[in-house]
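job 3f2a | input accepted
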Amino acid sequence: MPRRFIRRALAGRCLLKLLLILAATFALLAITLPFALSRTSLPLRALAGAAEWLGRGAGLSVEGLSGSLRSGFGIRALRWTGGEMNDLRFFYRREKDASGMDAIVLSDVHLGKTRLELGNSPAGTSTTQVHFHSNSSGRGATPPWPAMLLRLEQLTLEDVLISNKRTGFELQMPLAHWAGLELGPGRVRLGEIKVESDRLRIATPAPDHLEGELLPKLHPRIRRTVDFGAQLQQGGNGPAGLLRAFDDRLEFTIQADGSGLLRCNALDLASYFDAPLPQALHLELATQNSDGAWMRPTKLSQGSFTLGALSFTIIPWTAPEGPDLLGPTLTATSNDGNGIIRYTLSLQGGRPRQQLSSEPQEPLEETVARVFFKSGKDSLTGKDAADVRAKVEAFR
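job 3f2a | predicted structure (396 res):
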């Protein structure tokens, strides 16, 4: 046999062995590498590096990163231009509860000294209106809760300050604690919540009972304390219970199947907020599950309210059948003897918007003067004329 042929055969066998060894090595890495990386901070450090690169314009830096994808992570400090977060921890595990259901357990969620400025909202936008209804369709339906339990063992916030210099909003929480939350199919437990500050107070007298207050220091527009509460029950595939606010003038009853009823009984929004808002508000809004959408507004009954010096009657509506809902806004009309004045409340660009119009058509400033002073704008002087000019911005 020629020596050249023998050398080629041996070389071919060596190449085959080398390929087999490389294939086995890659297979072993494919199996073991994700398992090994999930227990190290290497993937987290890579993500932190990407975050710093993306946030380089804001001077973002990530300091003291530790942990793993498998069990959670800790960050000593996140800093950026004009803000910071310290001692951030987010640790979790996966297990099965007593019934055999998969559970994700948030074992330790912590946020230390934090300074966050919410100054990115466009100037001049209104934040004082209330929204009752928006467009919805089957494509935007809320998906059903997965067959999984979410449990929060401990969440702690310490020395957190969130502010917006443009609007005057400021939320300062020296200490907030939440433990025992459970969310899952047919299971809603609030657990124990305690938030104490001179701007916001929340407490849970019982696991299914929440009480809270928004205090005037939270925002310059808040005239007096706004109380709110919730009493939840278990059942079906969603939460059920009663939500209330404004000294029980607003109540929202929710059933486990997604149906509900919102009631306002002589609600005076203008007494709580420094803004031209409805007073003596009466209405009933029904909701139900429809075409996969949870608590979709379906029927607004006739109601009424006072705005300024005029009384308005709410025009009732019933949502059409099918997934495509045109989304009627809340509309109300009044007649001051000089024509029809129409009030509408809608959602535009994710923000609630109040509008006033008149029939026959006239400048908005004239309509605002009629609503709040029962007079034409040209007959107003001094403080009243300035008040009308200020209120016009709330109805554009």
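job 3f2a | Residues 3-37 form the longest helix (35 residues).
job 3f2a | closed
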